[in-house]
Amino acid sequence: MKNISFLVVDNNPVALRELSDTLRYLGHMEIQEARSGGEAWTVLKIRNYDCVISTWDMPEMSGLALLKIVRNDDRYINLPFFLTDTAFTKAKVIDAGRAGVTGLIVKPFQVEVLKNKIATMAKIMEICVPEEVRLSFLEGMKLLEDGNYEEALQAFERMLGQEENPEIYYNIGYIKTVKEEYTEAIEAFRKATKLDRYFAKAYEAMGRAFKALGKAESAAESLKKAAEIYMSNEKEEQAEGILNEILEENPDTINVYNTLGVLYRKRGDYQAALQQYQKALKIHPDQPKVYYNIGRLHVDLRDVPQARANFEKALSLDPDFKEAREALDAIELGAV
To answer: b vs e for 195-219, b when ≥16 Cβ sit within 10 Å of the residue's Cβ?
Structure first.
């Protein structure tokens, strides 16, 4: 097993020292410490590390935000990244999974747990990224960049005999798209997204292939999925462009207006968000999710009466709407 280098991140110096000491106890001596997410990102751009272990809660930049920034850079798309916390709620587990976390580690650190996490990661690194596959992939990418599509396709297809990898399938799909073989391209993109459920580029490319075949509904579905992943990774410009593209093809797509509303609300552009929600309600006036989102918008605006009215409307349309009920309960308790 190769020596593994670690970048460990925590604003708490005691916790940082504890993690570093535990790693050294396990025989790992290449350890770089960072006291903030910003410092970790700066360090990571200077030199490569085999693994990042970051605490979740930090001021200015959380561990989750650092993870999203790392995953947004193609150089680090497969970099093992663990998040640590004293407790992981269901919401945190979901957010971390969507952002591309490798694993979660509960504090205080237990030697055996940390040892097993690292052993699993090391095994994946050794099994899934053998040197010959890495070199073949680089060769295929060079052929692709040079426009030698047939040779690149043959190189990527040969690689599938050694390893199934979403990036390989994505590149095969890309070449098939260039050759206007859209059905085969879609199949390759599907395989890529099956291996990586959060592969936004593959969903986006699949949507455009469906669009080329005149399958508008399937195209919109794939493009919307890509937009949602881009949003979760804080790539809002890409998400907005895709959502508006869907609306150009079909202006009556209610879910897209709703998603745009969520995007603008996150940006703090409440007026633009409200306009999108209102467009959604014009198409489908009895959509509880939209009323719930309008309620959340009014919570952000500290307009409690309007928030309550919209949460009540959502609940009247769907009496089992758990989130709307919880929001109303919070208002009654004065927590909003």
So the answer is: bbebbbbbbbbbbbbbbeeebeebb
